[in-house]
């Protein structure tokens, strides 16, 4: 068997020397990696900042996800948080904790995945830190520019608003369920597994939503019901999801091969599956920006999420990161 | 024995609800925690960014460091990276990975330590992320404002420059050595142990150095010799440390109680001990800003670090994060 070079053998400085060339700068990169800190452009005079962490065995398994996949996901979930404020991504930094026996190639692939996810959106990887540890941990912090607009908060929804969604729903959850069942190779399910391994967030639609006057918005990371509940609580309103199964028929169709293979309820994935990194927003007008599908209305009342005016038809509205068994995605 | 509430029992949302009130905002905090992302002021139109990670069992042990200590250190080492560019800190975000059995109070103390270290310098804790994991990992990203100045890089040193240092040297390494030897309570050594647990970085001196025209600067995080070597390589110069034992006699004196207790060489701590987070800078003039002590000169030649014109008198010039045994501080 060929020897696989590990990060402990290579050492920190040499590993960084191999990683740096994989990290293209963007137009917002004023000073990239290599000094004590990086410098990013912040032309708006404000900078939007979000941080998210992925932990091996909780958010991913190396048996299923390549370094590239993990880098991609870590970047996308952070980029989506910045876009959900209506900001254009400008750059990210990453802290990597790696066991000494991690193959060097896995770490380089992580850098490639981070770079590939951010580059098309103008977000370079401008800095980072490395440490040893028991399990792989990837902590990404992303930055964005508001281009003169007010940030779009969770708290701005008003009764009468139109609730809309852009992006995929339930595909990541379905893909993970397939992998957990050992059905990652099932016929017709490759897109769903890919949706878990390398979700594609429609970042541009979030910036369009901000330009179009979205009153509230967030990145759907923990499931439609749970994240709708966050807008409901922050805004003090009822989010009434109207016939989501009809509105999101295309999403439901995409889930059907996995539902058949697993004997599962695709509507449950649609309503509670997280990590697709689409956007849920409310608008004062029914004239929605491209990419958004109407999924309900905002009403007055004690904060709650309803489906067709009543309680949601599925149990489980997300998960808690410290009690893996409580949610829909036990890997957490 | 009283029951100690753990983060798994409390759950993520409730833990965040207890942490948020512990995080005071600063004048640069335009939007704090609670939405998808935070918003920080970046009045200069650029933002300085650095990220650093602390891993349990590598960078700290819970037996020695309280949550407050770890939060303090995580903040200080990041704040020092931003200050080393000549920037004024504005805010930080933190990703915390915690085993489910971590006491809630430890996590709250971490937040208090982060807040306490940043607040006097105008840096609020504006956001974060939580996850479960096997060991505690604290990844902090810090931001700063250049106030219209050019960033001070490692690459700007020029032959003839005066090399100077501000802050403590070797105290953190001595404090750690005392703890490792079970002598954390040794007479006269409390300041050194405190220097390891809660280092105080003279952040204001770094901003003063930038205002005074420092040509190169960095945060001394891995030891004077190793970090001087980074300036030497980046600038293509020789750093000749002139009689550092004399120049830094006050620092050497501070190390003597620990050197006596352990039978160790205090000069080795002075030259190779990391994590005090002082600043090493080069200046075109001998007229140094307050807090800086002259420690040598920059000369032409193949990049190298000399001590009194010759090779350094001690072995070990730092450590590698993946090969803990190779360096001066085996906990890494």
TrEMBL record, chains A, B:
<dbReference type="GO" id="GO:0009228">
    <property type="term" value="P:thiamine biosynthetic process"/>
</dbReference>
<feature type="binding site">
    <location>
        <position position="154"/>
    </location>
    <ligand>
        <name>ATP</name>
    </ligand>
</feature>
<feature type="binding site">
    <location>
        <position position="36"/>
    </location>
    <ligand>
        <name>Mg(2+) 4</name>
    </ligand>
</feature>
<feature type="binding site">
    <location>
        <position position="52"/>
    </location>
    <ligand>
        <name>Mg(2+) 1</name>
    </ligand>
</feature>
<feature type="binding site">
    <location>
        <position position="36"/>
    </location>
    <ligand>
        <name>Mg(2+) 3</name>
    </ligand>
</feature>
<keyword id="KW-0808">Transferase</keyword>
<feature type="binding site">
    <location>
        <position position="81"/>
    </location>
    <ligand>
        <name>Mg(2+) 2</name>
    </ligand>
</feature>
<dbReference type="GO" id="GO:0005524">
    <property type="term" value="F:ATP binding"/>
</dbReference>
<protein>
    <recommendedName>
        <fullName>Thiamine-monophosphate kinase</fullName>
        <ecNumber>2.7.4.16</ecNumber>
    </recommendedName>
</protein>
<feature type="binding site">
    <location>
        <position position="51"/>
    </location>
    <ligand>
        <name>Mg(2+) 1</name>
    </ligand>
</feature>
<feature type="binding site">
    <location>
        <begin position="128"/>
        <end position="129"/>
    </location>
    <ligand>
        <name>ATP</name>
    </ligand>
</feature>
<keyword id="KW-0067">ATP-binding</keyword>
<keyword id="KW-0479">Metal-binding</keyword>
<dbReference type="InterPro" id="IPR016188">
    <property type="entry name" value="PurM-like_N"/>
</dbReference>
<feature type="binding site">
    <location>
        <position position="52"/>
    </location>
    <ligand>
        <name>Mg(2+) 2</name>
    </ligand>
</feature>
<dbReference type="InterPro" id="IPR006283">
    <property type="entry name" value="ThiL-like"/>
</dbReference>
<feature type="binding site">
    <location>
        <position position="319"/>
    </location>
    <ligand>
        <name>substrate</name>
    </ligand>
</feature>
<feature type="binding site">
    <location>
        <position position="221"/>
    </location>
    <ligand>
        <name>ATP</name>
    </ligand>
</feature>
<keyword id="KW-0460">Magnesium</keyword>
<dbReference type="GO" id="GO:0009229">
    <property type="term" value="P:thiamine diphosphate biosynthetic process"/>
</dbReference>
<comment type="pathway">
    <text>Cofactor biosynthesis; thiamine diphosphate biosynthesis; thiamine diphosphate from thiamine phosphate: step 1/1.</text>
</comment>
<feature type="binding site">
    <location>
        <position position="81"/>
    </location>
    <ligand>
        <name>Mg(2+) 4</name>
    </ligand>
</feature>
<feature type="domain" description="PurM-like N-terminal">
    <location>
        <begin position="34"/>
        <end position="144"/>
    </location>
</feature>
<comment type="similarity">
    <text>Belongs to the thiamine-monophosphate kinase family.</text>
</comment>
<feature type="binding site">
    <location>
        <position position="59"/>
    </location>
    <ligand>
        <name>substrate</name>
    </ligand>
</feature>
<keyword id="KW-0547">Nucleotide-binding</keyword>
<dbReference type="GO" id="GO:0000287">
    <property type="term" value="F:magnesium ion binding"/>
</dbReference>
<dbReference type="InterPro" id="IPR036676">
    <property type="entry name" value="PurM-like_C_sf"/>
</dbReference>
<feature type="binding site">
    <location>
        <position position="219"/>
    </location>
    <ligand>
        <name>Mg(2+) 3</name>
    </ligand>
</feature>
<feature type="binding site">
    <location>
        <position position="129"/>
    </location>
    <ligand>
        <name>Mg(2+) 1</name>
    </ligand>
</feature>
<feature type="binding site">
    <location>
        <position position="81"/>
    </location>
    <ligand>
        <name>Mg(2+) 3</name>
    </ligand>
</feature>
<keyword id="KW-0784">Thiamine biosynthesis</keyword>
<feature type="region of interest" description="Disordered">
    <location>
        <begin position="305"/>
        <end position="332"/>
    </location>
</feature>
<dbReference type="InterPro" id="IPR036921">
    <property type="entry name" value="PurM-like_N_sf"/>
</dbReference>
<dbReference type="Pfam" id="PF00586">
    <property type="entry name" value="AIRS"/>
</dbReference>
<dbReference type="GO" id="GO:0009030">
    <property type="term" value="F:thiamine-phosphate kinase activity"/>
</dbReference>
<comment type="function">
    <text>Catalyzes the ATP-dependent phosphorylation of thiamine-monophosphate (TMP) to form thiamine-pyrophosphate (TPP), the active form of vitamin B1.</text>
</comment>
<feature type="binding site">
    <location>
        <position position="222"/>
    </location>
    <ligand>
        <name>Mg(2+) 5</name>
    </ligand>
</feature>
<keyword id="KW-0418">Kinase</keyword>
<feature type="binding site">
    <location>
        <position position="275"/>
    </location>
    <ligand>
        <name>substrate</name>
    </ligand>
</feature>
<feature type="binding site">
    <location>
        <position position="50"/>
    </location>
    <ligand>
        <name>Mg(2+) 4</name>
    </ligand>
</feature>
